[in-house]
Amino acid sequence: MELGAAEWSAVFLSLKVATWATVLSLPLAIWVAYALARKRFWGHSFLNAVVHLPLVLPPVVTGYVLLILFGRTGAVGKALESIFGIVIAFQWTGAVLAAAIMAFPLMVRAIRLAIEAVDPKLEQAALTLGVRPSLVFATITLPLILPGILAGMVLSFAKAIGEFGATITFVSNIPGRTQTIPSAIYSALQTPGQERAAMILVLISAAIAITALLVSEGLSRRIGQRIAGQ
Amino acid sequence: MTIKVQIHHHWDGFSLNAAFESPRGITAIFGRSGSGKTSIINAISGIFTPDHAKISIDQTDLVNTQAGINIPIHNRGVGYIFQYARLFPHLSVMNNLRYSAKYGRRKSHRFDPTEIIDLLGIEHILDRRPAALSGGEQQRVAIARALLSDPKILLMDEPLSALDAQRKAEILPFLERIRDNIRIPILYVSHSMSEVARLANHIVILDAGKVIASGDARQILADPALVPYLGVRSAGSSILTTLKAHDDDGLTRLATSSGNLYLPTIRGTVGQQVRVRILAQDVTIALTRPGDISALNILPCVVGDIHMGEGPGAIVSLRSGDDVFLARITRRSVQHLGLAIGKKCHAVIKSVSVSPTEIG
């Protein structure tokens, strides 16, 4: 392979960032999807709009907002640094935050659709059997939406691997530290003689995406069969 | 165990004002669709909270809007059998049955799972998934699942209406077994008079959100004034008889309080009590005992009450010993025969028109 250390570290960093972004945002995504699908409350449409904002805003804008809030001089960033000693701007953890926020609407949409497909009458029936609501969620709703959760995680993972605009704005493009696959491809294309490296990175990112898709297809088919009882 | 229900709720263009008591056995809530039946049992289960309500089992309030009491669904101890079985698709039949014991908080378990499984005849399908069951099997599993959650009362919302005639006939005996073997009050919502007449000990008639009548099933079914609410075609009384003999020609002799009835295709043992239902449209009135007539069943009666319909029809109730029959005749016949309360006559009943129900 003609990939240098910097390119390889971009591949591993992308996998790490995408994995963390997906895993960390999952509980919140399930909670928000459940609230949007099942609850009627004041601010329902507002929450829905906020969740979808990263999908419609230019990614650079999202990155800029993150920089203002979470940068070392930003309101949240300053607090994080003085209380916990954590700095995320221009760190790989910042890339995780950017990727998680950009992928969040996709994950919420997939899970929300799955929750809406579960008949609330099943949950009602479970309640009449004397089971408290949180356990009904864990034993009825959750198993039935597993395929949707999986689909949401794959979408989120793929989006996080491909995230470019918000990431480069928020954490820049520092080889070995914040340079993900898309940033590395971008850098390679800017450098004469690096076309081959760019092409290999493109193939690697395509392979990652296709693998994730196949794995999720297989898993969700198996879960679907288990639920349908075949 | 007595269930007391008082509900007031107002929707756009419809209001529900219902108050009744339900003693032990099966209480049928009968009414046309849209009369508010399901809202009542949803309020009892806690799925729906009315504007004003006081619902109690014995002395314990499930909901009392005035006192600010509203026990959540899962703490009410009220079992619910829905129109569709609502089995959990990702669990086997056995795990559907175990669900409440595993995750529920009710400690006491009055019912033995083996007994309930046997009672509902589902031992051969325990390993299957709900998707692999017929509609009738699904509903039997749903009934067993509800019983195994150890409820204080059981609600049934038209549990047979989603099934075809054959499946209905398959489930009815199980419901009768539950009524007779398990001491648990059941509220049974239905718009089918034949189911109600077969199952109910007590009937509440609901029309446009109001309780028209509430009382003992046999009295309600024999009241001519209630016939418009029950449906003229399905009106009929239910009487208790004793099985006397199976004759060689296939007819069975049943003793009523005032004479014998000869009916075909009755099963059962001699001495057993049999409840039969006689439709008003199958009873003819004669002033003198007819001689040359094919009908086998002729009983002496006294006119109890006459209810003139809005059209050409009339419903006459006939007392015969301790039993009451309803007869659907024309107003013209009422005048022609000079029928009046207390007049003696004979009820002529076509033997083939009786649908039997065995009890006890």
Structure description:
The complex is a heterodimer of chains A (230) and B (360). Chain A has 230 residues and is mainly α. Chain A has ten helices and no strands. The model of chain A has no long low-confidence stretch (mean pLDDT 90). In chain B, helix 2 packs parallel to helix 4 and helix 4 packs parallel to helix 5. Chain B has a six-stranded mixed β-sheet, sandwiched between helices. A five-stranded antiparallel β-sheet of chain B has the order 2-1-4-5-6, covered by helices on one side. Chain B has two domains: 219 residues, P-loop containing nucleotide triphosphate hydrolases (Rossmann fold), CATH 3.40.50; 123 residues, Beta Barrel (OB fold (Dihydrolipoamide Acetyltransferase, E2P)), CATH 2.40.50.100. In chain B, a hairpin with a 2-residue loop joins strand 18 and strand 19. Classes of the chains: A mainly alpha (230), B alpha+beta (360). The interface between A and B is medium-sized, with 24 and 34 residues.
Give a quick summary of the entry.
The complex is a heterodimer of chains A (about 230) and B (about 350). With about 230 residues, chain A is mainly alpha-helical.
Distance between the termini of chain A: 46 Å
CATH architecture descriptor text of chain A: Orthogonal Bundle
Sheet-strand content of chain B, in percent, reads: 35-45%
Indicate the mean pLDDT of chain B.
Answer: 87
Gyration radius from CA atoms of chain A, angstroms = 20 Å
SSE order of chain B: EEEHEEEEHHHEHEHEEHHEEEEEEEEHEE
Helix content of chain A: over 70%
Give the full name of the CATH homologous superfamily of the largest domain in chain B. P-loop containing nucleotide triphosphate hydrolases
Helix and strand content put the structural class of chain A at mainly alpha
Q: Tell me about the largest β-sheet of chain A.
A: none
